[in-house]
Structure formats: structure tokens, C-alpha cells
Design brief:
The complex is a heterodimer. By secondary structure, chain A is mostly helical. Helix content of chain A is 85%, strand content 0%. The chains are: A mainly alpha, B alpha/beta.
């Protein structure tokens, strides 16, 4: 029986990891700068700009308030435009990225808020430019927090990728639904759940270790 | 070196406008250590932040080394700030960087090369006595060591001015002494102009040449530390000084009423202040010898030093016939000693 499930599991795991890694990479590339923008344009910060801050903030809130399953369906035309198809593992990446960007933005913003204002003031007193303050003070000082927060985002992505799988994205969620539920194979369901648990534990462990190593406070 | 002209600062706060600085004029000469003392909320931190434009004054001019800081654009201001070092109460070191990298930070901002940075940072580590801590992180250091890193970092760009914002307020008294000694040392070695913001008169007394007392957004009193200490005019100044130099009567007399009228068996309390060379002249012995019939009781005495000038303060009680006491007061007023008559008190019953 194991011999039969194993190839299914490994293929599904591979698809899940593909979805999570690619989504995370793209979403971070946009989400981290978004978090920096949210933090630095807030009142009293180095690039204070109330209009930008409130506009971006509302868009972020709007996207975050849409449940993932609805977002996924709602943006099918966009997905089709970008990927060429609305079905498949690669197509699932589009809604995953869009859902994760505002999530990462807010998480990074929270971490940046915890950098003491005195450090920014000290850098300003030394003649640092806003860009230098972001790249040499805010981000390095917030890095342990950002790593912890991004770990949370990755775990959320594992869950969302399972949902994406249910509408033809493949991955562990798809396997659990199609074999475990629709074909009445409880052992496949169980195996999938175990793999998900191990995966999430592993991500959390790596995240914690990395955050701890970075934290010199 | 630093000239502040008519500095005003008005903040908008939720509870309305706050007038933090109400027209401050101040001139600080090159190489001087200038203390600015005030209670919290007096505006002293705002004032020091106006010098490097971390706070932009609402009105007035800030001239540092001949340059009007208020007229500079952002990039000119960044350049100007590089010649003004600053240290802080809470050190404000990067927790994610080593001691070495913290000191190198301002140099990296200027895009200096690795080898050049090394050449600057090593002597600075030496100067502040932390050569063996170069690769440690701030969390591994004591408060005093952290402030030494702060000082080294502030000196990295060879500034002309060092601003110290409550730099010793988070440190214990021994550490405070050693940090103040370091500041005094670099002031001499590098001919650096230093502005010290504090709420502790001890700091002013230990290292400053001049002092301005700031209260409610204005300068209440200013002058050389010696003058202000020995002859304070403003109540707030007297209060600051009283923390260090108690002006209260000795405990045995505190409960007794001081009156300006003489009653039988009372003592006339006078406060004497000796300055400079006078502090070691036998003024009291001479008085007793020259004024027959006066008795002198030493109640309190203290010899201190301000900026290298000896400074003695005594409270003595005089007794004797009216004539004898008057001749004693006459004698003292002819000496180079400041005399202040406190009043008559009844002799302490326990001592009688």
C-alpha cells in the first residue's frame, strides 16, 4: 500500500513546495519593500507622507479582507492573463502571491516598528540618507523579527496552497481531497496530514533557528 | 563655534500648541565644554537637537562653525551633520552590529573603503579603551562600555562639535565619572567643542567650563560654572546647586526658628564662601584674634573644587557682645570672603 501512495505523496509534496517557494520568493520581493513603505511613510517617520501611507494602507487592508478561496476565484481572469491558464500548479501561484504581498507588508511593518526611534535619530545625526537608514539601520535591526514573521507567512502559504490545489493546482491539498475524500481512502488523507504536519514543523524550526541566530540583542 | 540666535520652537500636540523654546540666544566658544542644565520638559533636549537640526527651530538662526544650519538643504545638512558628533542617553547602538561595526558605521555611510575604516576605527577603540571588545555585540557590554562605543562612533568623522544628550543619565555614579573623564580628555586632546545636556549639577561641576540654566523654554541664568555655583541668582539654579551643596542649616538648628532679632543667649549664624586662594587663608583665626570678645562656633564646613578653583563654604555661629559681633562682621566684610547673615537662633539646648 505504501509503495502505491509514496509516488503520489512525493509528487504532491514537490508541487506544494514549488508553489510555496515560488510564491514566497515573488511575494517577498514585493511585500518587503511594501512593508518598508508602510512603515517609513507613517507619521513621524523618515519619509512621512500621509496620503501615500493611507492609500497604500487601505489597498493592503482591502486585499487582506478577502478570504483566499474567494480571491482565488475572483482573479481568474488576471491569472489567465499572466500564466495563460487558470488551472494548474503554476496558475495557483498568482493568487498565492497576491494574497501574500499585503500579509508580508503588514508583518514587515510590524517588525520595523519595533526598531527603537533613537537608532534612526542617531543615524540621521550622522548624516545618513533615508535609503541608508532603511538598508543599514531599519532592515538589519528588524531582521530577526522579519524572519520570524516570514516564517508565519510561509506556513500560511502551505495552508493556502492546499486550497489552491483543490481547484486544480495539484499539491498535497489536491491529493487529500481527490484520493482521501472523494475516493474514500482515509490512509491517503492521514498520510497527507502527517506530511503537512512535518513540513510545517520543519519550516517553523528553521525559521526559529535562523531568527535566533540573527538576534544579537 | 556655535551661535544660537533667537531660537523658538513650537510643537503641535493633541492638547494644543506647545511653546518649547521661547527665544534662546547662546554662544559657545571653540574648545569649550558648555553645560545646559534643566529639569525634564524644560526644553534642553529640544535645544541640543536644534544644533544639528534633528529638530528644526520654528524661528531663529543656528550657526555652527560659521554655517547657518537653518538655510541648508537636505544634502548640505547631511554633510554638515558629519562634523557634529552626538551621543545619547540610551546609547542608540545597532544591536545587530559588533562594536567595531558600530564605530565604523558613520564611515561606511560616507562610503569609505575597508582598509581606511580599519585605520580610523582601531585608534578610536584604543582611545575609548575597548580594543579587546571589537568583535562583541552591544548586548554583551555594560552601560559604560556602550557609551564608550557611542563616543568612539561620534568621533569617527573627526567632528568639530560633540553633543552629549543626557549621556550619563542612564549610568551609575562611578561609570558616570569615568565617562565624564573621557569626554574631558577628548575635549583637551582634540580641541573639541562639547555641549553637555544634563539634569545633574554634578556633571556640570565635574567637566563644564560654562553653564546655562534653562527653565520653561528660556535661559534663566548663565555664566562660568564657578560664578554660577558660588553666586547663583535664580531660584531654579539655587535648587540645582542645593542638591550638591546643601545650603540647609545643620539638623540641630533646623527645628529652631531663625529670627533677625537678637535674644539673649542666641547665636548669629553666618554663611561664608571662600574662593580660590582665600580658601586656605586663616580668615577665621584672624577674626578671632582681631575682634576681642567674639566667640566662633564652626557648624558646617566644606571644601570643594570647581574647575580647579578651590571653593570653601562654612556656616559659623558667632556669639558675644553686640559690639564684638559687629566688629567681627566688619572684619569679615573687609576680607575677600562672601558673607551672608542668616539670622539669630537659640543655642541648641543639647549643646548648651
Amino acid at each position: 500500500m505504501f509503495a502505491e501512495i509514496l509516488p503520489l505523496l512525493s509528487k504532491a509534496l514537490g508541487e506544494t513546495i514549488y508553489m510555496v517557494v515560488v510564491s514566497m520568493a515573488i511575494a517577498s520581493a514585493i511585500g518587503v519593500p511594501l512593508g518598508v513603505l508602510l512603515h517609513t511613510t507613517a507619521k513621524g517617520q523618515i519619509l512621512e507622507n500621509v496620503v501615500v501611507n493611507q492609500t497604500v494602507g487601505s489597498v493592503v487592508n482591502a486585499v487582506r479582507s478577502i478570504p483566499f478561496i474567494i480571491l482565488m476565484v475572483a482573479i481568474i481572469p488576471l491569472t489567465r492573463f499572466i500564466v495563460g491558464s487558470a488551472i494548474g500548479t503554476t496558475a495557483a501561484i498568482v493568487p498565492l502571491v497576491i494574497a501574500s504581498i499585503p500579509f508580508i507588508g503588514r508583518q514587515v511593518e510590524t517588525s520595523l516598528k519595533e526598531v527603537p526611534a533613537g537608532l534612526v535619530e542617531a543615524a540621521q545625526a550622522m548624516g545618513a540618507t533615508p535609503f541608508q537608514i532603511i538598508s543599514r539601520v531599519l532592515l538589519p535591526e528588524a531582521m530577526p523579527g522579519i524572519v520570524s514573521q516570514l516564517t508565519t507567512v510561509i506556513i500560511a502559504l502551505v495552508g493556502e496552497s492546499a486550497m489552491a490545489g483543490a481547484i486544480g493546482g495539484g499539491g498535497l491539498g489536491d491529493l487529500a481531497i481527490r484520493y482521501g475524500y472523494q475516493r474514500f481512502r482515509p490512509e491517503v488523507m492521514l498520510a497527507t496530514v502527517v506530511v503537512l504536519i512535518v513540513l510545517v514543523q520543519l519550516v517553523q524550526f528553521v525559521g526559529n533557528t535562523l531568527a535566533k541566530r540573527l538576534d544579537k540583542r | 563655534m556655535i551661535k544660537l540666535l533667537g531660537i523658538e520652537k513650537i510643537y503641535d500636540s493633541p492638547s494644543g500648541q506647545v511653546h518649547a523654546l521661547k527665544g534662546i540666544d547662546l554662544e559657545i566658544a571653540r574648545g569649550e565644554i558648555y553645560g545646559i542644565i534643566g529639569l525634564s520638559g524644560a526644553g534642553k533636549s529640544t535645544l541640543v537637537r536644534c544644533i544639528n537640526m534633528l529638530e528644526r527651530p520654528t524661528a531663529g538662526k543656528v550657526i555652527v562653525d560659521g554655517q547657518d544650519m537653518t538655510t541648508l538643504n537636505e544634502s548640505q545638512l547631511r554633510e554638515a551633520r558629519k562634523s557634529i558628533g552626538m551621543i545619547f542617553q540610551h546609547f542608540n547602538l545597532l544591536s545587530s552590529a559588533t562594536v567595531y561595526d558600530n564605530i565604523a558605521f558613520p564611515l561606511k555611510l560616507s562610503g569609505m573603503g575597508k582598509a581606511e575604516i580599519e585605520k580610523k576605527v582601531r585608534p578610536l577603540l584604543e582611545l575609548v579603551g575597548l580594543s579587546d571588545k571589537a568583535n562583541q555585540y552591544p548586548s554583551q557590554l555594560s552601560g559604560g562600555q556602550k557609551q564608550r562605543v557611542g563616543i568612539a562612533r561620534a568621533l569617527a568623522n573627526d567632528p568639530k562639535v560633540l553633543l552629549c544628550d543626557e549621556a550619563t543619565s542612564a549610568l551609575d555614579p562611578q561609570t558616570t565619572k569615568s565617562i565624564l573623564a573621557l569626554i574631558k580628555d577628548i575635549n583637551k586632546k582634540l580641541a573639541l567643542t562639547v555641549v553637555v545636556i544634563t539634569h545633574e549639577m554634578q556633571v556640570i561641576k565635574d567637566i563644564c567650563d560654562k553653564v546655562a540654566v534653562i527653565s520653561d523654554g528660556v535661559i534663566a541664568e548663565r555664566g562660568s560654572v564657578l560664578d554660577v555655583f558660588t553666586n547663583p541668582h535664580h531660584d531654579i539654579t539655587k535648587e540645582f546647586i542645593s542638591v550638591l551643596l546643601s545650603n540647609a542649616l545643620p539638623a540641630a538648628f533646623r527645628g529652631n526658628e531663625v529670627s533677625q532679632d537678637r535674644t539673649s543667649g542666641s547665636l548669629l549664624l553666618i554663611r561664608l564662601v571662600f574662593l580660590g586662594d582665600r580658601a586656605d587663608e586663616p580668615v577665621l583665626a584672624n577674626m578671632i584674634r582681631d575682634c576681642a570678645g567674639v566667640e566662633c562656633t564652626m557648624l558646617f564646613g566644606n571644601l570643594d573644587e570647581i574647575g580647579g578653583v578651590p571653593f570653601g563654604r562654612f556656616i559659623v555661629g558667632l556669639s558675644g557682645e553686640d559690639d564684638a559681633i559687629n566688629s567681627a562682621l566688619n572684619f569679615l566684610s573687609g576680607q575677600d570672603v562672601r558673607v551672608e547673615v542668616i539670622g539669630y537662633v537659640r543655642r541648641n539646648p543639647a549643646a548648651a
